[in-house]
Write a structure and sequence with these properties.
By secondary structure, the protein is of the alpha/beta class. The chain has 3 domains: 89 residues, Winged helix-like DNA-binding domain superfamily/Winged helix DNA-binding domain (Arc Repressor Mutant, subunit A, Orthogonal Bundle); 242 residues, Aspartate Aminotransferase, domain 2, CATH 3.40.640.10; 100 residues, Aspartate Aminotransferase, domain 1 (Alpha-Beta Complex), CATH 3.90.1150. Helices cover 39% and strands 11% of the residues. The radius of gyration is 25 Å and the shape is globular. Bound molecules: pyridoxal-5'-phosphate. The site of pyridoxal-5'-phosphate (PLP) has 9 residues, from loops.
């Protein structure tokens, strides 16, 4: 029996790359069948061409061809590139039923109204979600090495003696003990000097972005973002009608000398100098200082998204922007996703002292609060010194994996790529020196349970760069070489 779904799983279309039918014919036939069988609802919208192309691992032209044919044959209406909807009356239904006048008017589909913001977001071609159980999946820490015992102990102690004040609604800005621990941690580990009053705890990184967007931007404000970048996270800022301005980066991250030509009036810059995704770049000190200087001169804010701040493998890490900033321009966002686990979904912001009230008010209104017991347990885990011990222990393991990854890459894959350094964070990036079909390679590797995202899937403008991101956090050392060997042959055969 055919599966019925309102939200079609486009990636479930299966392509036979060695078959005799060209890919555009296969995709067309499968979508046509899905429409005729009602598995894709009438009047629903086809995904943007870039998105479907990325999901299927085919070129965008292939998808454009398919959409144009669907349009020509009457299965969809609209205009390719400006929203394409499944027709209300399909060609198969147009042959008039017995007794009906053959020239009965065909009702045009009425697009249902959604906000312009949602419309713009649905055009975004978001990259596929990561699969944490596959080898090489980036941004995932070693899930088999989580501090299970220590966490279990701290949790059971917490629940035996949890103070009543923490079991009600709790403070909107976060548990005071945790805010204190975070202030101490960012001070000691990253040189960011702040008071607990400047720290807010939120329910995941995206909430941090939404909160900062609420406080710092107005409708129509321009926000400089890294291109390529983690568009799924950045898109949260579009919810306020802000205009994202992608600025191309290199292996040293954002370069503020390009800001004037892209958005001289930017209200906000989002940067991840420690370890960028997907490029894995680390921003040199001079660029950090110039970026802050630019923000100072233009009266702009900076969100420093320091998502990979726990692990450093080469020398002393450079100070984050928030530690270098003397003008109170930087909003620092960090989380426990790599240092403990993404499953906690616990993030924090460190904001300039004079913004603390505005942030506190917004967080109260929008209720971004994270689970109080989770905050309590993490605060106790930190206070007992066990987070620091876990970071030290895992740092040694990740350093080995990082070195092995770099070595295997150089010996197994060849020189067609420019490699990022594995100085910090949990991923290594390889940027192709020529444009390649990285989406197809990435898609093909999923069948081998290898999750190596394509860099092109993170490009926001037409300036496409191609390559791959390799995570070493959650891949045991003995699986790194076999996974990279498979990757090497997939690239060679592409
Ligand atoms: C694809 C992808 N997944 C996950 C992350 C990390 O997000 P978080 O810090 O919320 O874990 C990033 C960061 O850029 C990313 O690009």
């Amino acid at each position: 029996m055919p599966r019925h779904f309102n939200y079609p799983t486009w990636s479930s279309l299966s392509l036979d790359r060695s078959g005799s039918d060209p890919l555009h014919v296969q995709v067309f036939e499968q979508i046509r069948q899905a429409i005729v069988q009602g598995r894709i609802s009438k009047n629903s919208r086809l995904p943007p061409t870039r998105q479907l192309a990325a999901e299927l691992g085919v070129s965008r032209n292939t998808v454009v061809l398919v959409y144009e044919r669907l349009l020509a044959e009457g299965y969809v209406s609209g205009r390719v590139g400006a929203g394409t909807y499944i027709a209300a009356v399909l060609p198969e239904e147009r042959s008039a039923p017995a007794g009906a006048p053959s020239n009965a008017p065909v009702a045009a589909p009425v697009p249902r109204h959604i906000s312009r913001r949602a419309q713009a977001m649905s055009e975004l071609a978001l990259p596929p979600e990561r699969n944490a159980t596959f080898d090489l999946s980036p941004t995932v820490p070693a899930l088999d090495q989580l501090p299970f015992e220590q966490f279990a102990k701290v949790s059971s102690q917490y629940w035996r003696s949890a103070p009543a004040a923490e079991l009600g609604y709790g403070s909107p800005m976060g548990l005071p003990e945790l805010r204190q621990q975070i202030a101490d941690y960012v001070g000691e580990a990253h040189g960011i000097s702040c008071l607990p009053d400047q720290v807010l705890v939120v329910d995941g990184t995206t909430q941090g972005f939404v909160l900062a967007g609420q406080v710092l931007t107005d409708h129509g404000d321009r926000i400089i973002v890294e291109d390529p970048g983690y568009i799924t996270r950045l898109a949260a800022l579009m919810g306020f009608g802000a205009d994202l301005v992608p600025v191309p980066i290199d292996l040293q991250g954002l370069d503020s000398s390009r800001f004037d030509s892209h958005a001289p009036d930017a209200r906000l810059i989002v940067a991840s100098p420690t370890n960028q995704f997907p490029f894995g770049s680390t921003m040199p000190l001079e660029r950090r200082l110039s970026l802050l200087q630019w923000a100072h001169e233009r009266n702009a804010w900076v969100i420093e998204y320091d998502f990979n701040n726990a692990f450093h493998f080469r020398g002393r890490p450079l100070p984050p922007l928030a530690a270098l900033d003397h003008g109170g321009r930087v909003i620092y966002i960090g989380n426990f996703n790599r240092s403990i686990s993404p499953a906690l979904n616990l993030a924090y912001l460190v904001v300039p002292p004079d913004l603390a009230d505005a942030f506190a008010c917004a967080t109260q209104i929008f209720s971004f609060k994270a689970s109080m017991p989770t905050q309590g347990v993490v605060a106790d885990f930190m206070a007992s010194g066990q987070l620091a011990a876990h970071i030290r222990r895992m740092g040694v393991r990740y350093r080995e994996r990082a070195q092995l990854m770099e070595h295997c890459f150089r010996t197994l894959v060849g020189r067609d790529f420019e490699l990022s350094t594995t100085g910090s964070g949990l991923h290594l990036s390889a940027i192709s020196r020529t444009l390649i079909d990285d989406a197809a390679v990435s898609q093909a590797l999923l069948a081998h349970r290898i999750d190596v995202p394509a860099i092109s899937a993170y490009c926001l403008s037409e300036q496409v760069r191609t390559g791959f991101v390799f995570g070493f956090g959650n891949t045991p050392a003995e699986r790194i070489a076999p996974a990279l060997a498979l990757f090497g042959s997939a690239v060679a055969n592409a």
